[in-house]
Each structure stands twice: as structure tokens, then as C-alpha cells.
Amino acid sequence: MRVWPGRPYPLGATWDGAGVNFALFSENASAVELCLLEGPNHTERRIPLRERTDQVFHAYLPDVLPGQLYGFRTHGLYEPEKGHRFNPHKLLFDPYAKAVGRDLCWNPALFGYTLGARGHHL
């Protein structure tokens, strides 16, 4: 898969007629992976977003088409007391997504902590 530097704006996934630019803002992440979901079992292909402009991680994928299912994995500190809950084991929705490709099935495993535990807030 070809990966070009891309642009930090606009945020989200943007089709330009020839490929898709992906841009994700994170003030505190140390690394971000774009995860493309492929096939009936949603096999995951991880692509590190190596470009960073200010606080936006970005890449351009000329081989991606509209309708591609994707998410992000973010790396960084796990310091809940400071509001940091980075966990690369969790696949994240794009907060700038224009559509969601399937229904979300709520489950406690979606959270990085035990629901209802003392001192943990959403």
C-alpha cells in the first residue's frame, strides 16, 4: 500500500477524487496508527501515521476509495488522573468521521477501565 505524507487539514478522512487524506488531531499521543478494515472478517491493516504537523498526525493513501472502513490506534501515556487513557489495544472511531459503517455493540470491554469503579469517569 502506498503511503504519502498527506496534509494536516481537513481533519478526518477526505476523498479528493484520487485518494484519501487522513488527519487526526491529538495533543498528547506519541504515535498514531491508521487501521484499515478489509474483507468480511474485517482483517486489520495497520499503517503508522509518521507525518505530524503541529498536533495533527496525517497521511495520504492514493489506493484507498470512499467507503473504506477504518479506525485509529493511539499510543501514549496511561495516566487517568491527568486525563490520558492511551491504549493501542483499543480501536478508536474517527471523531471527524462523516459516517459509521456498522452498528456499535456497547460492551464493558470497549472501555479502558472498569465501569463504575471509584475514581473513573467518562
Order of helices and strands: EEEEEEEEE
What is the SS-derived class?
A: mainly beta
* First-to-last CA distance: 36 Å
Which of globular, elongated, flat, extended, rod-shaped describes the shape? Answer: globular
Strands of the widest sheet, in order across it, are 1-2-6-5
Portion of residues in beta strands equals 35-45%
Low-confidence stretches: none
Could you give the count of β-strands? 9
- Determine the fraction of residues in helical runs and give it as a percent range: under 10%
Rg over CA atoms: 15 Å
Report mean pLDDT, rounded to a whole number: 92
Report the biggest beta sheet as strand number plus sense, adding barrel if it closes: 4 strands, antiparallel
Helices, by number, come to 0
Structure report:
With 122 residues, the chain is mostly beta strands. The protein is built from no helices and nine strands. A four-stranded antiparallel sheet has the order 1-2-6-5, with no helix packed on it. A three-stranded antiparallel sheet has the order 4-3-7, with no helix packed on it. The chain has a two-stranded antiparallel sheet with strand order 8-9. It is globular, with a radius of gyration of 15 Å. The mean pLDDT is 92.
